[in-house]
């Protein structure tokens, strides 16, 4: 590995020792360490959630269908982890029928299942998620998780309507 070579100087009195280190084993050790860390490292895929988005081609678009308010449930995601829901139209919505729930347990999944059972046309039942400007991303993901728990694949994400904003603001204040 290392060797010491003694050489005499031409003056005759001093001997100079030259030390030469062989770096080949160090390179071997480096490759062994790289190999070790490659085999012991955890290669995992990040957890992602699939979103079913509509196709962008015009020929694949379905005809627009108006969904009856009794055939849907609308969730409004508000500030401070608050979530409200209703099954009303613009004329019927009031502070009395905009109900509040939370993300604890499976409350939202039960609300979705109950609304599905009471829907006049269950094959067209739709869950609508309307996040407000004060809502956070975590609540949106929690809502999508609850949809997966309830096994409802027909859902929509929309902007909150002015008539819903008015009733929502009354409840939040």
UniProtKB/TrEMBL annotation:
Protein's cellular compartments: Cell membrane
Record-given protein name: Biopolymer transporter ExbD
Pfam families: ExbD (PF02472)
Membrane-topology descriptor: Single-pass membrane protein; Single-pass type II membrane protein
InterPro entries for the chain: ExbD (IPR003400)
Family according to the record: Belongs to the ExbD/TolR family.
Keyword set, alphabetical order: Cell membrane, Membrane, Protein transport, Transmembrane, Transmembrane helix, Transport
Domain of life the protein comes from: Bacteria
Transmembrane segments: 21-39
